[in-house]
Amino acid sequence: MLELWDKAVTSIQQNVKSQNFDIWLRPIKCESIRDGKVTLLVPNRFFKDYITTNYLELIERHLKEETGENYDVSFVVSEEANGNGEEHPNEDTIEGNEELAEPCVPLGTMIGTLNPRNTFNAFVVGPSNQLAHAGSMAVASMVGRKYNPLFMYGGVGLGKTHLVHAVGHEIRAKHPELNIFYVSSEQFMNEFISSVRNQTQHDFQQKYRHDCDVLLMDDIQFIAGKDRTQDEFFHTFNSLYDQQKQIVLTCDKYPQEIDNIEERLRSRFQWGLIADIQPPELETRVAIIKKKAEAEELDIPNDIAFLIAENIRSNVRELECALTRLLAEASMYRRPLDVDLARHVLQSTFNVSAPRSTIEDIQRVVARHYNIRVGDLKSKSRQHSVTLPRMVAMYICRKGLGSSFPEIGERFGSRDHTTVMNACRKIEKVSATDLAIRSAVDTLRRKLAI
Ligand code: ADP
Ligand code: MG
Q1: What separation in Å is there between the alpha carbon of 165 and the centre of ligand 2?
Q2: Any residues with Cβ below 6 Å from ligand 1, and which?
Q3: For ligand 1, atom 9, which residue shows the shortest CA distance?
Q4: What's the confidence (pLDDT) of residue 337?
Q5: Which of ligand 1's atoms lies nearest the C-alpha of 125?
Q6: How many CB atoms lie within 10 A of CB 257?
Q7: In a 10 Å sphere around its CB, with 0-12 CB exposed, 13-18 middle and 19+ buried, how is residue 223 labelled?
Q8: Between 144 and which of 64, 155, 246, 338 could a Cys-Cys bridge form, CB atoms 3.0 to 4.6 Å apart?
Q9: Beta strand pairing status for 246-251 and 214-218?
Q10: In 3-state terms, what secondary structure has residue 39?
């Protein structure tokens, strides 16, 4: 009967990575097979837990395949299974001994740290990052089969790392059995160099080319000019690609623009999907600020969100920084979260000397000029004394701030974007002939410095 175990082991061996087999399956001894029950001896309790979680099903399946019958497998901790004098992992060695833990990557391992906040849920999608976001979602749901590699590129602080982490979180939740590696190309290089120095290249290659199921590599531009690392990465890429394992890369440039990178790598970067991330537009910046405030359980007034978003345009990290700073000042000095405080923060921290006017500013200045109330501009009133200033204000928002039609509509009493479009066209047209209107627009724009 014990032969049955040998047979099962032989077929299991063909289905498990050799290192995992050597560490977890080879040491198992079969004590007995009786009445549909199989008793297996394992060296220690840790081993027992690990193998129960990770290999019990596989063992039962192979026993069934050999015999056509169901077996009940149980593990018993026994010195005997430790009898061949080899070291086997136990609580002490597995925790404290990296040498043992490293060459073998147990199933479902996560290498590298993902920021728990960088999820798809926390990511605001806009035209500037739509493609990268869609590509990341596709990759997370069709691991290795849809776009391989996914290559995302864009400037600093635009959300590349955020999206890569989100892919990692999502795959981990859906496929806990996969080994996900998140590393920067710099870490990859350092690890490679130390493997050369310590003559553990074989382990390094086993880990990256075989044990890895999903490779998330951040900031690939770093390996430009590093010939040996590029060569190693080339082979890693090929091996993973051939096994249909998902590769996600981020870079600060488009592949053609990376200097000092081998042509064969450059071309591989373009095999899958290339998605750029551009600096976010105004609306996306506002949405990001609101989302971040929400995460802090704060409701930030619209005019402040706009003031920040209109003045900080380059990258999302700075936006976050401005918000954090604003919240810190408000609580430190017990000041209300208002436009004055926001202006102060923008001036003192971000050197925005005269913060740009906002839609609110335009409404205020236009209303004062025509001697009406801001509320009138947003009201439903169709009196000429109100409709003209309203159209002028909309026009200045469009010309001076470049705000979108829907955005302006929203801020002028939830009007439709076509209403705004018509208003802007009309002012454009009449100001060509009507000097009074033209000079009013000019004066107002000068006052607002836009
Ligand atoms: P990169 O890797 O491109 O330099 P990061 O991914 O580190 O940029 O992003 C910088 C910061 O901005 C992070 O805190 C990230 O969460 C945030 N961020 C960037 N884009 C978005 C977005 N669209 N929605 C929400 N947060 C974002
Ligand atoms: Mg990054």
Answers
A1: 10
A2: 118, 122-124, 129, 154, 156-162, 288, 316-317, 320
A3: 159
A4: 84
A5: 23
A6: 12
A7: buried
A8: 246
A9: parallel
A10: strand
Q: What is the pTM of this model?
A: 0.63
Tokens representing 381 are 């009133």
Closest residue by Cα to atom 19, ligand 1, is 159
* CA 400/CA 443 separation, integer angstroms: 13
Burial class from Cβ neighbours inside 10 Å (0-12, 13-18, 19+) for residue 86 reads exposed
10-residue mean pLDDT series, the chain (450 residues):
86 78 82 90 74 86 89 84 48 36 68 93 95 96 89 96 97 94 96 94 95 97 96 97 97 94 95 93 93 87 89 89 88 84 85 78 95 96 96 95 90 95 95 91 87
Q: Nearest bound ligand to CA 162?
A: 1
Structure tokens at 132: 């990268």
User: Quick one: which ligand is closest to 119's CA?
Assistant: 1
| CA–CA distance, 329 with 327 (Å, rounded to integer) | 6
Distance 82 CA to ligand 2 centre (A): 46
Residue (of 45, 130, 160) closest to 91 by Cα position = 45
Phi, psi at residue 436, to the nearest 5°?
-60, -45
Counting Cα atoms < 13 Å in the Cβ hemisphere of 197 gives: 6
Q: What letter does residue 338 receive in the DSSP assignment?
A: S
Between strands 37-42 and 29-34, the pairing is: antiparallel
Ligand 1 pocket mutation, candidates 151, 317, 324, criterion most atoms within 8 A of CB: 317
Please give the structure tokens belonging to residue 181. Answer: 């590696």
Tell me the CA–centroid distance for residue 322 and ligand 2, in Å. Answer: 19
Q: Write down the H helix ranges in 333-400.
A: 339-350, 359-370, 374-378, 384-396
DSSP structure class, residue 381: -
CA 132 to chain CA centroid, Å, is: 10
Ligand number nearest CA of 153 is 1
**CA–CA separation, 437 and 313 (whole Å):** 32
How far is it, in rounded angstroms, from Cα 281 to Cα 31? 68
Pick the residue whose CA is nearest to atom 10 on ligand 1: 157
The Å distance, Cα 125 to ligand 1 centre, comes to 11
Residue with CA nearest ligand 1 atom 25: 123
Residue to mutate, 114, 158, 251, 289, ligand 1, most ligand atoms under 8 Å from C-beta: 158
Q: Please tell me whether the peptide bond between 149 and the residue prior to it is cis, using omega within 30 degrees of 0.
A: yes
Q: Give the HSE-up count for residue 94: Cα atoms under 13 Å, Cβ half-sphere.
A: 15
> Of the bound ligands, which one is closest to the alpha carbon of residue 157?
1
Ligand 2 centroid–CA 245 distance in Å is: 22
| Greatest pairwise CA separation for the chain in angstroms | 104
